[in-house]
């Protein structure tokens, strides 16, 4: 009897693109046995990922309301496909318990990977991240600004291959990829429509080229949009952890300073089972997903623990709790407001640490000017995918031709002069901040965001931090005179890595859809390599 050919694979879903609804309207679909088993597997995997400590089989049964034989079979299947693993149980004293130990299960973040790419006129950066969104390898390459589209695409594939080779990951373990790029991107995230500063890049099928290499879903997205997603996920768009308070009521949380000015951040850039890579200054801070390996001294049939439905780093923005406006009611210097001095920002707003802001504008400053807009917790892309293209605004006082759009970058000499305290340079930075605020004020009036974040890629070292803070203060002060309800203003905490972090986030959101619906299919892909 002939074996039927597999049906067509479902089209990739990019939950953060805003291009389509995840659930089509109409009558509910018929659920088959295979679909039900996949749903149950997703439920078991979700508990394994969120529970702390690592759950036992009996705890998985209680949390999912499935029968013990069903959960046991699903757990074995998830172990076989590499998504989870068994953790030997330890007694409360750290010694193995007598008799048959209760098995605990934990998620394997390195079962698969996603790729994020940041394409710029003079550089290409590729990042390989695990299923928790943690960076495991980053490859940066300098390129010429006048490269053809084909040559730039070759640099992208070279950087991706180098990042994968760094940790010995094959293509079957890469499950999604996203390329961040300047220019206009179509609504379906399949090609670049326009990129005036990148030559023939707009005519290059980067999605197809990278798909041929990785054989996984690939998307392309505007760099400012990705920077907004990255900042919302791992930067100042996320409510901070509780601060350590001093007796005088102030706290130890640092001022908004570019990440590149803080030095190495302790990110755990290591391959699976390998030695840590050399720390790189300016990498975005990440939160390790390690959990305690020991049990709590209870038997397999003991009392259930209270499982936490905790957030995972790769959870899509639509499922995160919104960070209400005013969650961080602080002055520029990081001090609490007088009305709430000494009270953690999370308690002030009544939201947990880690919640995401739902209304935010990220302003990308650098060789080009752009903005990424988060509204309702999701990325706003517009009818043509061109929302946030503030580089086409005609700003006041432009040094270019009369009426020309955009805002020219700050000269490096002005940034350096501001750091040195030169009055003329400081005046130029303040003027730039006022012009920026004047130009984007109508956008802010229309969107009414809770937070405006200024990208700090233009301020790439600790020496330039004074210029960044001066620019922020000037823009905010002037904007406050133009707006009905002024938002909070912050400098990016991700610095030069905002786009790359957002690219990882975008790719990971697609994988999360599969992990929540048919997770064993991803494991089979890795096993078939």
From TrEMBL:
Residues 245-256, 267-281, 297-311 have a biased composition (Basic and acidic residues). CDD domains: ASKHA_ATPase_ROK. Residues 237-352 are annotated as: Disordered. Pfam families: HTH_IclR, ROK. SUPFAM superfamilies: Actin-like ATPase domain, Winged helix' DNA-binding domain. Residues 39-86 form the HTH iclR-type domain. It comes from the Bacteria. Belongs to the ROK (NagC/XylR) family. This is ROK family protein.
């Amino acid at each position: 009897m002939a074996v039927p050919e597999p049906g067509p694979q479902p089209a990739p879903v990019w939950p953060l693109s805003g291009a389509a609804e995840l659930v089509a309207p109409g009558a509910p679909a018929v659920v088959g046995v295979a679909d039900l088993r996949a749903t149950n597997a997703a439920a078991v995997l979700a508990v394994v990922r969120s529970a702390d400590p690592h759950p036992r089989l009996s705890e998985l049964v209680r949390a999912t309301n499935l029968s013990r034989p069903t959960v046991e079979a699903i757990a074995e299947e998830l172990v076989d496909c590499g998504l989870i693993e068994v953790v030997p149980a330890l007694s409360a004293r750290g010694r193995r318990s007598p008799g048959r130990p209760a098995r605990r299960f934990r998620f394997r973040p390195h079962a698969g990977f996603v790729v994020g790419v940041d394409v710029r006129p003079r550089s290409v950066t590729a990042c390989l991240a695990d299923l928790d969104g943690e960076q495991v390898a980053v490859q940066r390459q300098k390129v010429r600004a006048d490269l053809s589209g084909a040559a730039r695409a070759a640099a992208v594939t070279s950087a991706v291959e180098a990042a994968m080779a760094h940790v010995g990951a094959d293509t079957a373990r890469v499950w999604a990829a996203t390329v961040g790029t300047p220019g206009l991107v179509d609504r379906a995230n399949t090609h670049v429509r326009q990129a005036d500063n990148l030559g023939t890049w707009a005519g290059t099928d980067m999605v197809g080229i990278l798909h041929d290499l990785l054989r996984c879903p690939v998307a392309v997205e505007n760099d400012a949009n990705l920077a907004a997603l990255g900042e919302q996920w791992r930067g100042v768009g996320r409510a901070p952890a509780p601060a350590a308070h001093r007796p005088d009521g102030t706290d130890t949380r640092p001022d908004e300073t570019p990440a590149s000015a803080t030095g190495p951040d302790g990110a755990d850039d290591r391959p699976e089972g390998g030695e840590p890579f050399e720390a790189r200054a300016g990498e975005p801070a990440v939160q390790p997903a390690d959990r305690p390996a020991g049990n709590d001294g209870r038997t397999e049939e003991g009392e259930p623990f209270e499982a936490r439905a905790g957030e995972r780093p790769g959870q899509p923005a639509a499922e995160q709790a919104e960070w209400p406006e005013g969650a961080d009611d602080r002055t520029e210097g990081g001090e609490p407001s007088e009305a709430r001095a000494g009270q953690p920002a999370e308690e002030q707003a009544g939201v947990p640490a880690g919640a995401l802001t739902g209304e935010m504008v990220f302003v990308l400053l650098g060789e080009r000017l752009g903005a990424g807009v988060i509204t309702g917790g999701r990325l706003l892309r517009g009818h043509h995918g061109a929302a946030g293209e503030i580089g086409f605004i005609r700003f006041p006082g432009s040094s270019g031709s009369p009426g020309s759009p955009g805002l020219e970058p700050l000269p490096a000499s002005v940034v350096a002069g501001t750091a040195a305290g030169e009055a003329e340079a400081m005046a130029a930075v303040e003027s730039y901040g006022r012009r920026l605020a004047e130009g984007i004020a109508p956008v802010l009036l229309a969107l009414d965001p809770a937070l405006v974040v200024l990208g700090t890629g233009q301020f790439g070292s600790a020496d330039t931090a004074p210029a960044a803070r001066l620019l922020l203060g000037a823009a905010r002060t002037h904007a406050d005179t133009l707006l009905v309800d002024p938002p909070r203003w912050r400098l990016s905490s991700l610095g030069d890595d905002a786009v790359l972090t957002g690219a990882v986030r975008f790719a990971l959101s697609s994988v999360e859809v599969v992990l929540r619906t048919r997770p064993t299919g991803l494991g089979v892909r890795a096993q078939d390599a």
